[in-house]
Design brief:
CATH architecture of one domain: 2-Layer Sandwich
CATH superfamily of one domain: TruD, insertion domain
Largest sheet: 11 strands, mixed
Structural class: alpha+beta
Oligomer: single chain
Radius of gyration: 21 Å
Number of helices: 9
Number of strands: 17
CATH topology of one domain: Pseudouridine synthase
Distance between the termini: 33 Å
Helix content: 25-40%
Length: about 350
């Protein structure tokens, strides 16, 4: 692949094509933190006993690692001992769960608060909260109409929202994954080994994400992001289970149309993707064009994994206000609200995300 072609692949990963066409309107997002509300759903109940505490925390205009460090200070533990299921946007009002070892001193963490955060609940729990330990996230997003007419904006969104609910959206990683001006993608393998664990994780995650976005962008361009091809690895909706597709049949096509299963793409690691036929050829070609990012993941010992190319948007609601609309929807864990919003409206990207 030529240098120009490789640059085009990288550009598509950062500014990927939309699946549902051009945005139907312009809107202002995140005029305040309260315009973007996200709430984690654990999918399980606290154990009620154990050596840790599960803390339900509300944060505003604060990033997740910073809150984790503050909780470590209050609990008297190392930052590494604080667990959280995932990163949440800084420019937002987020309700998320953290875990800390039960303090040896009489600290009332149930009433703890600091700059930009407050603990809402504290429950005994058996173990540290691991990454990805979520069922999903609920979003409430307020889009302010550029023309100041919320009812008109809601009307313009109506048919696009119906299409999104029926077909889902491409499961792109949001721009916040790459850091300000793509800063999380900078650095060589030798430098990575010397970084603190948190920053190292961000760099590796960004490298994986840009390869995935580039592959998904290619399949949005050819229309195959929402249908199965021979050689695909299909994933069950909302679950980690995948299975190979040698030749799609009517049964599989029907399940895919009903959003029960989805094509998947590579989260790069050591070795090669497990896909086959033309799907494998495309994934290997994209991987070759982003050789440095793939090499970084392989050198770190990451395994080849899969991620759904499509995300189902459930419980999607739109309420008109005098000068805005409020959208409510739920996504499975690891999916980005920005992937939904970019299919609806045109708005300047928020550079302050985690």
């Amino acid at each position: 692949m030529s240098e120009a072609a490789a640059e085009a692949v990288l550009a598509a990963a950062f500014r990927p094509p939309r699946a549902h066409g051009a945005p139907v309107a312009e809107a202002v997002m995140r005029a305040s933190a309260e315009d973007f509300v996200v709430e984690e759903e654990l999918g399980f109940a606290p154990a009620g006993s154990g050596a840790h505490l599960l803390l339900r925390v509300r944060k505003r205009d604060a990033n997740t690692p910073w809150v984790a460090r503050e909780l470590a200070r209050l609990a008297g533990c190392r930052p590494h001992d604080v667990g959280y299921a995932g990163l949440k946007d800084r420019r937002a009002l987020a309700i998320q769960w953290f875990s800390v070892p039960r303090p040896r001193t009489s600290v009332d963490l149930a009433a703890a608060r600091g700059e930009g955060f407050e603990v809402l609940e504290a429950h005994p729990h058996a173990r540290k909260l691991p990454r990805g330990a979520l069922a999903g996230n609920r979003f409430t997003v307020r889009l302010r109409a550029q023309a100041g007419d919320g009812r008109q904006l809601a009307e313009r969104l109506r048919s696009r929202l119906a299409a999104v609910a029926a077909r889902g959206v491409p499961n792109y990683f949001g721009p916040q994954r790459f850091g300000r001006s793509g800063g999380n993608l900078r650095g060589e393998t030798e430098e990575l080994a010397r970084l603190p664990a948190t920053e190292r994780g961000l760099r590796l995650s960004a490298a994986r994400s840009v390869v995935f976005n580039a592959l998904l962008a290619a399949r949005v361009e050819d229309g195959s992001w929402e249908r199965l091809l021979g050689g695909d690895l299909a994933g069950l909706d909302g679950r980690g289970s995948i299975f190979p597709v040698e030749a799609p049949d009517e049964t599989l096509a029907g399940r895919c149309a009903r959003l029960e299963i989805h094509p998947t793409g590579p989260l790069w690691g050591a070795g090669e993707p497990r896909s086959g036929a033309l799907v494998r050829e495309l994934e290997m070609r994209i991987g070759a064009s982003l050789e440095a990012q793939c090499a970084l993941c392989a050198a770190a010992g990451m395994a080849q994994e899969r991620r759904s190319l499509r995300v189902r948007v459930v419980e999607l609601e739109c309420r008109a206000e005098p000068v805005a609309v409020t959208l409510r929807f739920r996504l499975t864990r690891g999916s980005f609200a920005t992937a939904v919003l970019r299919e609806l409206v045109d708005a300047a990207p928020d550079a302050a995300d985690d």
